[in-house]
Hints:
Blueprint (H helix, E strand, L loop, with lengths): L2 E9 L2 H13 L7 E8 L12 E6 L12 E8 H17 L10 H17 L13 H15 L1 H18 L4 E9 L6 E8 L3 H14 L6 E7 H10 L3 H20 L1
Parallel strand pairs: 1-4
Antiparallel strand pairs: 2-3, 3-4, 5-6, 5-7
Amino acid sequence: MQDIGGIRIVLSSINDVYRLHHDIVKSKGRFEHEALLPPHDYIKQPKADGYRSLHQVFKYKNSNAPELDGLFIELQIRTKLQHSWATAVETLGLIEKSSFKTGEGADDFKRFFKLASALFAYHEKQPIIDELAGQPITKLADELLSLEQDLRIYSKLKGLIVTAKHIETTSNKSDEYHLMELDTSKESAAVSLIPFTKSQLELAESFYKMRELETQHSPNIEVVLIAAGNLKDIKKAYPNYFLDTQDFIKNLKSICQKIKK
């Protein structure tokens, strides 16, 4: 392990991101850590999957703990839009049982997030991923809306928000697993939950498999077995993921509406 730690800063605008980065790198006397330039600028050159953020690595230096000198600290600076995209990728991955950020998952979901990234980049007047560069923005918005209608991504994200809130506020501490059944046939997704303790994992998995078979011909019914630990991991990485996920939906809808006009 080379990193001693990581820091993420979320700001309102692109200008704020680059202004803060400049101030930190150029500051003298505030700390001794060495900035390894140039930074990894995934805003000007987005990753192929749509990820956007500015990454600056520092070589750690501390006279009080010289044994740690030479290890790395990574600073991630991004806008609220970029952060809401990353939160949505992580959150939907829990429902789809796929780590989209590491390249796993179905192509249509990954395509949706590429399109969302492109629309956010367009809104922020920044480069979009190479795969979509040069295409009319109206065409990208139309494709995203079509995919969303087919995949019901907004409903799934809203359903998980409801589920997570319920688990946090009403579940017993002994409940380790929750079978979430999500009906996305309407705009406001209907959610039902069945809790299981850690010792009931085998029962939970059996019940999950049974409901999957029973609903396999119902495309609007999504059955997911969620481990409480997975939700805790998301909340640890994205402390405000309720608001971030809601912002992702709200902003994407708003940007699409403006483009369509």
